[in-house]
């Protein structure tokens, strides 16, 4: 069976963007692929330096996968840090990866651009080697499992392409001894709306602090939905649904009929943004409330989550160990 792998970085509570861009589509693959999900806790260290918080977010991401429908009996869930083979392979692959490839990665380039805009003479100011090597470690996460597809949101597509490049380099040099599967990104659909906006209208992202966490209590969810910015079109005027962040979120959660009906009602005028926000809240809460209960039980200390992650670690390590042994042999170690 074909393998799919995807990960989430535990730098905050998982949010609606993670759910739409990664969690939901990845779980949809579970019947077609041998699906693997992991929590990229070592990746989080590039920005997160609070050990308690890292532990909490790691648990929170794991609990979210399961609350959202991952069946740990059938699919693998593990922490990146529980697979130390990753870091040995990381070195091997770093020796085959051109520095220029990392120079071109979006996140690194964005950091340099910010320094340039701020007029700093050192364009690498504030960039640690973890950030620079981030795409390499991500490539290894994917390659060590020999994943064929990687379900991710649009912002991660370049990283999967980099992983494919690195696999190609290895296969070119050592292909006689071992060949990696060359992975492909799997983006939910080509629709732009799949990059979900956050409560300030920009892309929903933990680094912008504009997220709507998946499993907050209903009252907080309502408050955050109310904060999504809208334009000042008067209630009675016609509105273009697709220009609105509220609608962009709604359309990812509502049935097709409801989406079309809402679009028509907005275009007709007479519906204010407040009404649309209440509708969005109702739709979200209806879907998330049952998952929220399961999440809360799992995230609590001493829950069955520890056993689930321990079992996942064992299976993930076994698979990664096979890849690493073959690689060591192929490169002459
Ligand atoms: P992270 O934690 O930033 O995001 C996890 C997943 O959620 C998607 N996503 C979104 N999709 C739609 N709209 C949004 N607003 C939105 N925000 C986030 C992301 O595209 C991603 O799929 N580098 C990864 C973690 C990682 C990984 C891997 C992923 C490490 N190793 C190997 C796949 C395979 C990351 O930072 O994701």
Brief descriptors of the model:
5 strands, binds tryptophanyl-5'AMP, single chain, globular, mainly alpha, three-stranded parallel sheet, 333 residues, two-stranded parallel sheet, Rossmann fold, Tyrosyl-Transfer RNA Synthetase, 2 domains
Explain briefly what this protein structure is.
With 333 residues, the protein is mainly alpha-helical.
- Report Rg: 21 Å
> If you consult CATH, what is the topology of the largest domain?
Rossmann fold
The largest β sheet comes out as:
3 strands, parallel
Share of helix among residues? Answer: 40-55%
Helix-strand pattern, N to C? EHEHHEHHHHEHEHHHHH
Q: Number of folding domains?
A: 2
CATH structural architecture of the largest domain: 3-Layer(aba) Sandwich
Structural write-up:
This protein has 333 residues and is mainly alpha-helical. It has two domains: 3-196 and 303-331, Rossmann fold, CATH 3.40.50.620; 215-295, Tyrosyl-Transfer RNA Synthetase (Orthogonal Bundle). Helices cover 54% and strands 7% of the residues. It contains 13 helices and five strands. It has helices at 16-28, 41-44, 51-67, 85-94, 99-103, 106-117, 129-143, 157-174, 218-227, 245-253, 256-268, 273-299, 305-331, and strands at residues 3-8, 34-39, 76-79, 149-151, 184-186. The longest helix is centred in the C-terminal third of the chain and has 27 residues, at 273-299. The mean pLDDT is 95. Tryptophanyl-5'AMP (TYM) binds next to β1, α1 and α7. Tryptophanyl-5'AMP is lined by residues 5-9, 17-18, 20-22, 40, 43, 138, 141-142, 150, 152-153, 155-156, 159, 194-196, 203-205.
């Amino acid at each position: 069976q074909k393998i799919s792998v995807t990960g989430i970085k535990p730098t905050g509570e998982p949010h609606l963007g993670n759910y739409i861009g990664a969690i939901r589509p990845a779980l949809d693959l579970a019947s077609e692929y041998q699906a693997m999900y992991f929590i990229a806790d070592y990746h989080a260290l590039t920005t997160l330096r609070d050990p308690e918080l890292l532990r909490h977010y790691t648990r929170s991401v794991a609990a979210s996968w399961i609350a959202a429908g991952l069946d740990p009996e059938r699919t693998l869930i593990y922490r990146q840090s529980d697979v130390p083979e990753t870091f040995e392979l990381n070195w091997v692959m770093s020796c085959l990866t051109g520095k220029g490839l990392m120079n071109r990665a979006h996140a690194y380039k964005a950091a340099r651009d910010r320094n340039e805009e701020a007029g700093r003479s050192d364009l690498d100011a504030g960039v640690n080697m973890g950030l620079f090597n981030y795409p390499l470690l991500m490539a290894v996460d994917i390659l060590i499992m020999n994943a064929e597809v990687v379900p991710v949101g649009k912002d991660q597509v370049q990283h999967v392409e980099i992983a494919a490049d690195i696999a190609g380099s290895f296969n070119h040099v050592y292909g006689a001894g071992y060949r990696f599967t060359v992975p492909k990104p799997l983006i939910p659909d080509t629709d732009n709306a799949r990059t979900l906006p956050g409560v300030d209208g920009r892309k929903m992202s933990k680094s912008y602090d504009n997220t709507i966490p998946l499993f907050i209590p209903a009252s907080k969810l309502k408050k955050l939905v109310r904060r999504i910015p809208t334009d000042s079109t008067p209630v009675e005027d016609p509105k273009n649904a697709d220009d609105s962040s509220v609608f962009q979120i709604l359309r990812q959660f509502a049935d097709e009929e409801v989406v079309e009906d809402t679009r028509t009602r907005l275009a007709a005028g007479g519906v204010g943004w407040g009404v649309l926000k209440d509708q969005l809240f109702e739709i979200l809460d209806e879907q998330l409330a049952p998952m929220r209960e399961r999440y809360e039980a799992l995230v609590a200390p001493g829950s069955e989550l520890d056993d689930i992650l321990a079992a996942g670690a064992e299976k993930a390590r076994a698979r990664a160990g096979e890849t690493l042994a073959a690689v060591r042999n192929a490169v002459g170690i």
